[in-house]
Amino acid sequence: MNVLGVLQLVIQQFSTMKIFVTFFILCFVCKPSNGTSLVKACLVENGFGASGKDLEIVKAVANPEYVGILRQVPKDKLSGVFACIFQDRNPTTNLYASLKRLIEMDDKVSKAEAQKMQDSLTDCHKEAGDDAKLLNCVNAFDSPFDEIMATIRDVPDSLGFCYEKCKLTISEMYKIEQNRLNLKEIMTFVPEEKMACTTGCKVDKSGRSLTSRLTDLIHKSKKHDEKKKKEMIETLNRCSAQVSGVKVETYNLIKCLNLYKPPFIDLY
Record's superkingdom (predicted)? Predict the structure, then answer.
């Protein structure tokens, strides 16, 4: 194959991947592109610098490898940093209510521990005058609250409507965040029902049609022959017609297609 042929093949493959990225990232688990810039701005705003060492302070929370770093850091200032990060990502959301939700989603603590966290949070909420003081009051950077702080840091969409609606746990949210481009890996950890609920919710919020996206993916698929593509399009059209006008239409389309099983999961 000559150079031009190779180039055309690369462009064609990239085009297919681009459709997938658009579908899975933009409509499913968008990750803010300004994450590092935001953290730097919040560090500076609270009296830190913006160097790599300063960024390690934020990274150190709930990270055993960096535990020594936090011993020298004023917790009231660090509380200000995390309050800043939260407020920037969730400008219309109340921190107290959000922390209560995240405690409910924390599958790493027992029910008794979760209740103690809720009680501590409620007591501090009555005393604290702002978000930073609330975090400082609950000792947010010590166990078990440090895992909640790490979730706010690592999973930008952890407080999004869809994760709460679909009752994902913190561990499941992390799995999705860590495997944004590997749906098959996600499905080994996140229950299919929760995944269908979350994907349907995300797609509906995006305002984009799942049917049109899947149609593009099928036509450009390199993993299916023309006969299989025809069958998939027929299944897609049948299911689309079947769920048209039904409540939570996208969710029901996902269920009708068995989206997370062959042949549709092979699109990813």
Answer: Eukaryota
